């Protein structure tokens, strides 16, 4: 589907409640299924990716009721999951794929994990190799690197695993396997990555120890059903934070946004770039939440790299767009993981933004953006990647001309209501 956007002198005003956090929504279904008893989830993201997770767990015999404003999971525990009669289809979701493999690794049945064309290109050996080392039988294209992946789980032994890269999906997969191993599994992260899995273990009555970047998890823990409140997704809010900061005369309030310190790199970047951002923190819950008020201002270029990267990895496409409007050259380094996301995001950001007039170049592990550059209309593509699609829609606000976006429907992976939210806060003048 080609979607055409045309905003002349837009000003963004008003308030938005962005949809639930994608990472937390996935985990709420997984922990709900692995716990005993009923789990009720509010604020769940009904985007394609999280719906894929629901479908996979239903295929393993878990009853999950979808109501208007809540999801109810009738948990069965690890032992209660059943051999699926058909393949487990993860759609476009890397999180479902990798975390599910960690769960399946300890289950004494056969299953096959498949996904869409994008999933079929995403590296899985980072997960399948350590799971094999723990005792799971796994095979897949190129020795377990790509889907379809078939797995027969079984008795797992704990390992001490030094993660070769900073990835919360990898960490979580090994945590799920560790929960089923006999004894204590140790995981060492090179950089701290999002800790929603660890927080959820505690929320469901389990325990996991952290000393600096070293995590220890005991196998054989039992979880009890809970109520989970999913906060708004900071990765979705990021599109409106960027739009509010860059579109002149704008003033936007984003309510109930999750501001977990392992996810808040976008806030640091906005502040360093000179954005006018006010943070109203709410009372601390299982996950910290805040209201964010953004007003437009002149932005300046910054350098982004090192340990902040995992805290803003999904926000780099929209940060790159923001940098096109900042004074000076912004450099993004240590972000090679972007090459193996839903699409090669270094290539996609650079090529698609160039079509709209950006002065941007790819580097080995990131990009360089020279600003400020006036953007113009044109025809671009999401390349089937939700975050590229939404970034290009925000770019259209800065062009004053028509922007046609191919494969715009990809945005339903994480933000099905994105367009209606954008239209609500945009006054064409
Ligand atoms: C996620 C972790 C990140 C992120 C992805 C969601 C998660 O991936 O990019 O969108 O829910 O754990 P990596 O762990 O592969 O970096």
Summarize the structure.
With 429 residues, the protein is an alpha/beta fold.
Spell out the key features of this protein:
single chain; 429 residues; 2 domains; 5-stranded mixed β-sheet; 24 strands; 15 helices; alpha/beta; UDP-n-acetylglucosamine1-carboxyvinyl-transferase, Chain; binds shikimate-3-phosphate
Notes on the protein architecture:
The protein is an alpha/beta fold and 429 residues long. The protein folds into 2 domains: 216 residues, Enolpyruvate transferase domain (UDP-n-acetylglucosamine1-carboxyvinyl-transferase, Chain, Alpha-beta prism), CATH 3.65.10; 208 residues, UDP-n-acetylglucosamine1-carboxyvinyl-transferase, Chain. The protein is built from 15 helices and 24 strands. The strands form 6 sheets. The protein has a 5-stranded mixed sheet. A 4-stranded mixed sheet has the order 4-5-3-14. A hairpin with a 7-residue loop joins strand 16 and strand 17. 53% of the residues are buried. It binds shikimate-3-phosphate. The site of shikimate-3-phosphate has 10 residues, from helix 7.
């Amino acid at each position: 589907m080609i979607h055409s956007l045309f905003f002349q002198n837009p000003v963004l005003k008003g308030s938005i409640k962005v949809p639930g956090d994608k990472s937390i929504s996935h985990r709420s279904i997984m922990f709900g299924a692995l716990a005993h008893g009923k789990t009720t989830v509010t604020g769940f993201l009904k985007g394609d990716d999280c719906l894929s997770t629901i479908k996979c767990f239903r295929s393993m015999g878990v009853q999950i009721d979808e109501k208007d404003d809540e999801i109810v999971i009738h948990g069965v525990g690890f032992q209660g999951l059943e051999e699926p009669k058909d393949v487990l289809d993860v759609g476009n979701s890397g999180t479902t794929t990798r975390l599910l493999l960690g769960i399946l690794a300890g289950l004494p049945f056969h299953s096959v994990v498949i996904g869409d064309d994008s999933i079929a290109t995403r590296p899985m050996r980072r997960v399948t190799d350590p799971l094999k080392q723990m005792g799971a039988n796994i095979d897949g294209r190129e020795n377990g690197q790509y889907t379809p992946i078939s797995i027969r789980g079984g008795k797992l032994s704990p390992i001490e695993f030094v993660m070769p890269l900073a990835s919360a999906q990898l960490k979580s997969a090994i945590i799920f396997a560790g929960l089923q191993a006999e004894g204590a599994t140790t995981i060492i992260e090179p950089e701290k990555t999002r800790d929603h899995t660890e927080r959820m273990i505690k929320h469901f009555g389990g325990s996991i120890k952290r000393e600096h970047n070293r995590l220890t998890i005991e196998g054989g823990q039992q979880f009890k059903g809970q109520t989970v409140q999913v906060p708004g997704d900071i990765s979705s809010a990021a599109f409106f934070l960027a739009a509010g900061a860059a579109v002149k005369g704008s003033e936007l309030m984003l309510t109930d946004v999750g501001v977990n310190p392992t996810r808040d790199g976008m806030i640091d970047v906005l502040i360093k770039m000179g954005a006018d951002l006010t943070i109203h923190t709410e009372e601390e819950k299982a996950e910290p939440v805040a209201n964010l008020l953004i007003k437009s201002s002149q932005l300046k270029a910054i350098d982004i790299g090192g340990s902040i990267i995992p805290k803003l990895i999904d926000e780099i496409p929209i940060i790159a767009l923001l940098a096109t409007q900042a004074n000076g050259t912004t450099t993004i380094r240590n972000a090679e993981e972007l090459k193996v996301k839903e699409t090669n995001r270094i290539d996609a950001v650079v090529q698609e933004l160039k079509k709209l007039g950006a002065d941007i170049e790819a580097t080995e592990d990131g990009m360089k953006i020279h600003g400020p550059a006036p953007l113009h209309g044109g025809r671009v593509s999401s390349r089937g990647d939700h975050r590229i699609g939404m970034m290009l829609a925000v770019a259209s606000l800065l062009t004053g001309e028509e922007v046609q976006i191919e494969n715009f429907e990809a945005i339903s992976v994480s933000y099905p209501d994105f367009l209606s939210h954008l239209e609500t806060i945009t006054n064409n003048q």
